[in-house]
Design brief:
CATH architecture of chain B: 3-Layer(aba) Sandwich
Number of helices of chain B: 5
Order of helices and strands of chain A: HEEEEEEEEHEEEEHHEEEEEEEE
CATH topology of chain B: D-Maltodextrin-Binding Protein, domain 2
Number of domains of chain A: 1
Low-confidence stretches of chain A: 1-5, 7-26
Distance between the termini of chain B: 31 Å
Largest sheet of chain B: 5 strands, mixed
Mean pLDDT of chain B: 88
Radius of gyration of chain B: 17 Å
Distance between the termini of chain A: 26 Å
Largest interface: A-B, 46 and 29 residues
Strand order of the largest sheet of chain A: 2-5-6-7-8-9-10-11-12-13-14-15-16-17-18-20
Radius of gyration of chain A: 21 Å
Number of strands of chain A: 20
CATH superfamily of chain B: Periplasmic binding protein-like II
Structural class of chain A: mainly beta
Strand content of chain B: 15-25%
Largest sheet of chain A: 16 strands, antiparallel, barrel
Mean pLDDT of chain A: 91
CATH architecture of chain A: Beta Barrel
Strand content of chain A: over 45%
Oligomer: heterodimer
């Protein structure tokens, strides 16, 4: 809590200083903007701590916590000429290093000689599905946080590489495709005692999109090949065993070295109604394990108020005996309300009922005796852009 | 009953009289583009595909005082939703919103100096130097 107090002070100051200003222009070439969330969560779960994603080493314990949803992002958009632009974005949030240390989230050059073609090189977001590359921008979606059952298991935050995008109109519709390749490092926590460091040196994939009227459809694929090593007290204990190859042991158990992610999603947004549904399948090729995750969400705007509901689920399909207690099976039903106080400031509240059958990667500080059950999360959030 | 009918009629007439002008999407009259349809207007102003029917790159300009009326009319969305839409695209590095003109005078100035710039204006204020590509009924 001590660490995040200065951040909260900065967020409050930033939020109140110039909340009406959308952007600030520096001679039209550089645009500075930002986004942030002040999030508070109350958990009634005494046996385990709730995390937003597998990159967070600690979760929200029973009672109130502001750790998992609070963040601040700053961005500069640079226009070199009509065809060449650049983006740099830094963000502070509670992440895999166990603190709020800022990270470079985006840093790329974009060359677009024609509206139908775009080439980007540098640090890019991972847009494996329709929402993943904007999942930290609370102001952009109705919920307090993107459904944890679905987005909590995503492995990568960004990719250092390149992508190409092709767009073609078809009558009044639009079809477009993107292909990307690159590499990245990331850390995923399997439990309090074990984490995996991904040196993902071969990432490639793409997605096909179709937009017609208020509908947007996407089908996507990503393949991630990584060198993975392991840390934490469990890894240290295993390393003490003479002649034992820790890395080989854990890689055999997890199958993290080769991953494939398939995604299908649709968004329908005709005016006040917003419907979203996305399904992902993560395949751990070596062990023939796969993780299915999905959500459906509906929001309806009445003037400044947007009530919403979201249903999500995640399940690991594994014929083995769950050697690392990492398999997940969980469903969440949430209802919430977004209130747009101003055109750059929204207050949200949400109640989630989580039914956990197997906690796996998505809970921390889990009691040995806890194999799941019902949890209730009450969240409050303040999202802003400037 | 007749009295009630009169009151209703009177109210309707009043509201009709109070209605503002429609909004015209305009371009420099030197442009070869004669008209655009609603889908093309949405593609251009919402950053989906910024190409004009003649193949040239479209440069959309927002006019700040008319912005809320324009997007309510074009896509039935309030400003908070439009800002939310752009927050997703801007902070994922996908696209940028239209340039902003603070007034009709600034808009006219930009469009006068750019043949591929298009903006929107009250339909009863369209200058002779501009061509109306489409009219949004309110």
């Amino acid at each position: 809590m001590k660490r995040i107090l200065p951040l909260l002070a900065v967020l409050l100051w930033t939020g109140s200083a110039d909340i009406q200003a959308q952007t600030r222009f520096l001679d039209d070439r550089v645009t500075l903007s930002g986004f942030g969330t002040l999030g508070l969560l109350h958990s009634n779960q005494e046996h385990a701590d709730f995390v937003r994603d597998i990159g967070q080493p600690k979760g929200a314990e029973q009672g109130w916590s502001s750790r998992i949803d609070t963040r601040l992002g700053l961005q500069a958009d640079i226009r070199f000429d009509e065809k060449l632009t650049g983006v740099i974005q830094g963000m502070s949030q509670y992440h895999s290093s166990g603190d709020f240390s800022p990270e470079l989230m985006l840093a790329f050059l974009r060359y677009s000689p024609d509206p139908g073609f775009q080439f980007r090189v540098g640090r890019l977001g991972w847009d494996v599905d329709l929402v993943s590359d904007s999942r930290y921008v609370g102001y952009a979606y109705p919920w307090i946080r993107p459904p944890v059952d679905h987005f909590g298991v995503l492995q990568l935050t960004y990719i250092d590489g390149a992508d190409v995008t092709f767009k073609r109109p078809m009558g009044s519709d639009l079809i477009w495709a993107r292909f990307f390749t690159g590499r990245t490092n990331s850390r995923a926590y399997l439990s309090d005692e074990l984490y995996a460091n991904f040196d993902a040196d071969h990432i490639y994939g793409g997605h096909l999109n179709y937009e017609t009227g208020a509908w947007r459809f996407r089908a996507g694929y990503t393949r991630i090949e990584s060198d993975v090593d392991y840390g934490g007290t469990l890894a240290d204990q295993v390393a003490q065993i003479p002649g034992f190859n820790t890395r080989r042991f854990f890689n055999a158990a997890t199958g993290f070295e080769q991953l494939e992610v398939y995604s299908v999603g649709a968004i329908y947004n005709p005016g006040p109604l917003q419907l979203q549904a996305i399904w992902n399948r993560d395949i751990l090729i070596r062990n023939e394990i796969w993780v299915d995750s999905a959500f459906v969400s509906a929001a309806w705007r009445f003037n400044d108020l947007s009530p919403y509901t979201v249903l999500s689920a995640v399940r690991t399909h594994d014929d083995r005996d769950d050697p690392l207690n990492s398999n997940i099976e969980q469903r969440t039903w949430g209802v919430g309300l977004r209130y747009d106080v101003a055109n750059d400031l929204a207050i949200k509240t949400q109640v989630d009922r989580i039914h956990t059958h197997s906690p796996g990667l998505l809970w921390r500080n889990t009691d040995d005796s806890w194999n799941g059950g019902w949890s209730t999360m009450v969240s409050l959030g303040l999202d802003f852009i400037f | 009953m007749t009295r009630v009918m009169r009151i209703i009629l009177f109210t309707l007439l009043l509201s009709a009289a109070a209605a503002r002008a429609d909004i015209a999407i305009v371009i420099n009259s030197d442009s070869d583009v004669q008209q655009i349809n609603r889908s093309e207007a949405i593609n251009i102003f919402m950053g989906r595909y910024r190409k004009l029917p003649d193949g040239s790159v479209a440069l959309p300009i927002d006019q700040t005082p008319l912005r809320a009326r324009f997007y309510r009319s074009l896509v039935n969305k309030e400003m908070a939703e439009i800002n939310s839409y752009w927050a997703r695209l801007v902070f994922s590095g996908q696209s940028s919103p239209p340039q902003q003109a603070a007034s009709t005078i600034e808009l006219v100035d930009i469009i006068t100096h750019n043949t591929n710039a298009l903006g929107y204006i009250d339909s009863d204020q369209v200058p002779a130097s501009m061509r109306v590509l489409m009219t949004l009924r309110e």
